[in-house]
Specification:
Two copies of one chain form a homodimer. By secondary structure, chain A is mostly helical. Chain A has two domains: 22-66, Arc Repressor Mutant, subunit A, CATH 1.10.10; 81-199, Tetracycline Repressor, domain 2, CATH 1.10.357.10. The first copy, chain A, is 65% helix and 0% strand. The relative contact order of chain A is 0.10. Chains A and B meet through helix 6, helix 7, helix 8 and helix 9 of A and helix 6, helix 7, helix 8 and helix 9 of B. Chains A, B: One of its GO terms (molecular function) is transcription cis-regulatory region binding.
Chain lengths: 205, 205
């Protein structure tokens, strides 16, 4: 007589394929959460629903993600990774323009609006603020920083410029209009962000 | 026999000075709220307390400000107006640097931190979002816009630059670091915001 299984996942695991590796399970969950958040936002995101969709136990989910916000942020980061990827084969101004347009499009989806809500909630919830930085913003910042550093090494950005500051003057400026919508995010606005920074706004001598 | 007064303010109105004019009462309330918000934030801000401090009825307060958030924002706007004033007698780069340093200092007070919380709450509360823009951000934007437009008319900013965008690339960039604090707001950061924009970050030809 065999001992009964204690694996809470057993009932939903596809039969005949054996146990999925943890990293595969994790990737599957993130993909499912990412799709859900992009399409619907986070209002309908529950551990119960994700457990059902991804075929894992709620215990497993809680082990990896301490809160709904953390789960949403991790899923969202992976869901937008390809859309927001940089292209180091084109010149940096063209790459930034293109990426900023993609970014604005993503931010107009239910997922993007959910991200703004999480930024909002994180002003009042320190745990969520830590999760936001750890699972979303610091990773996005790093990707932008790497692209800008490459451009600086290529001579497309002047030596001595602190490229960290550019992240705030490009994407930060967009977040400003999204979070406090006195003015709209338009294609012209996105292009002007890049042009102002590269060309400078002082009169040409 | 005289009819009893029905003025709820009568008990607290200074005797012998007669009825205060509405605009004076309003200015007194805003001054009291502004001091309170700057010193303490909004956790302890209640209509009851403001009514007591400013010597007006709660009915009067509710007539002018529909919510605690609206009252806080209106008071805060007036409290920081002088600190955040521009100085059109100096060149625009020096003025912006100075103003951005003052802005960062104000944002580090309990009042500034309360403002970030209100931005946060306004992501989930449309009424508060409308009040935020009406009573705070649109007014601040207008002041910045006017200063930048003057600089453009003076030839300090190139013709053709949309100065609306600069508001997001200066103060918006600071809000970005305050709301999502992956990187700190330092004096060097504030100066770099101005320098990057005016000088441009492309290599000099």
């Amino acid at each position: 007589m065999t001992t009964p299984t204690t694996d809470a996942d057993a009932g939903t695991r596809p039969r005949g394929r054996g146990r999925r590796r943890a990293d595969e399970v994790r990737a599957d969950v993130l993909a499912a959460v990412g799709r859900l958040v992009l399409d619907e936002g986070i209002a309908g995101l529950t551990f119960e629903r994700v457990a059902r969709i991804a075929g894992v136990s709620k215990t497993t989910l809680y082990k990896w993600w301490p809160s709904r916000g953390a789960l949403a942020l991790d899923g969202y980061f992976h869901a937008v990774e390809r859309t927001l990827a940089f292209d180091a084969t084109v010149d940096v101004r063209a790459d930034l323009r293109h990426q900023l347009h993609s970014f604005a499009e993503v931010m107009a989806t239910p997922g993007g609006r959910a991200l703004l809500q999480l930024i909002g909630e994180s002003q009042l919830d320190e745990n969520l603020a830590v999760a936001y930085r750890a699972l979303y913003s610091s990773g996005r910042r790093l990707l932008a920083h790497d692209r800008l550093t490459l451009a600086q090494q290529n001579g497309e950005i002047r030596a001595g410029v602190d490229v960290h500051v550019l992240v705030d003057q490009l994407w930060g400026a967009v977040y400003h209009r999204l979070l406090i919508p006195d003015e709209p995010v338009t294609p012209e606005f996105l292009d002007a962000l890049v042009d102002n920074l590269f060309d400078g706004i002082a009169p040409k001598k």
